[in-house]
Amino acid sequence: MNAQTRKGLVAGPAGELEIAQDAALGPSRGVCVISHPHPLFGGSLDNKVVQTLARAFNQCGWDTVRYNFRGVGASQGRYDEGRGELQDLLAVVAQLQARGPLSLAGFSFGAFITSRACAHLMSQRSIDRVVLVGTAASRFDVPPIAPDLHDRTLVIHGQADDTVPLDAVLDWARPQVLPVLVIPGGGHFFHGQLPLLKSLVVRHLSA
Predict the structure, then answer these.
(1) What are the tens digits of pLDDT across the range 68-88?
(2) Which residue in 148, 101, 143, 104 sits closest to 125, CA to CA?
(3) How far apart, in Å, are the Cα atoms of 50 and each of 26, 101, 147, 154, 184?
(4) How far apart are CA 184 and CA 7, in angstroms?
(5) In order of start, what are the domains of the chain with their CATH numbers?
């Protein structure tokens, strides 16, 4: 991502997991763990949307950790239909507990895994901010976001997303009365709109 990105390996439930860490610009407010799109369709920690999320969090004072799910890049193991991938995320979080407040973010399949992690972690520790982009609600059974997290959660979706239709995300959000920020004309990967995506996340983190 930049010259200061530190890559490494951490222990995961199916073997080592590859991570990329970037430091906050200024004093650190905590750490954000960011999850990438579907492993079987080219998703990785180098995805442009994932990098954009990291830059937004870094700008707002958060250290960030991007990681590759099992079977991607240097991460060991193989795709596990979301079950093992949740355990991958929880393993990364567990190794960062000494680094202060925690935020979570994810894109597409990564947003699905992030929402599952929120449901799992809520009874164990505080989650400061949640950012879900292109949430894969048409492809997976995405759990609701706990009401206590709503004010700290930003859901962004492209109006013209042809991978995950906007209606599927609205159907998921409607019973929760969870707002969805829609980017007009935005596709699943926000081509040409990544600066706007970053600014919207920065606005949320700065509120």
Answers:
(1) 999 999 999 999 999 999 999
(2) 101
(3) 21, 20, 25, 15, 20
(4) 35
(5) 6-206 (3.40.50.1820)
Q: pLDDT tens-digit profile of 94-134?
A: 998 767 899 999 999 999 999 999 999 998 899 999 999 99
Strands 15-22 and 6-12: antiparallel
* Inter-residue contact 95 to 117 (CB < 8 Å): no
3-state helix, strand, coil in the chain (%, to 5): 35, 20, 45
Helices 109-121, 83-94: axis angle to 10 degrees equals 60
Average pLDDT along the chain: 96
pLDDT, mean of residues 52-57: 98
Q: Spell out the residues 6+ positions from residue 83 whose beta carbon is closer than 8 angstroms to its own.
A: none
User: According to the 3-state scheme, what is the secondary structure of 124-146?
Assistant: CCCCCCEEEECCCCCCCCCCCCC
CA torsion angle for 132, 129, 79, 187 (degrees, to 10)? Answer: 20
Which residues lie closer than 8 Å to 142 by C-beta, 6 or more apart?
Answer: 111, 112, 115, 116, 135, 136, 172
Closest CA to 52 of 164, 180, 200: 200
Of 163, 161, 181, nearest to 173 by C-alpha is 181
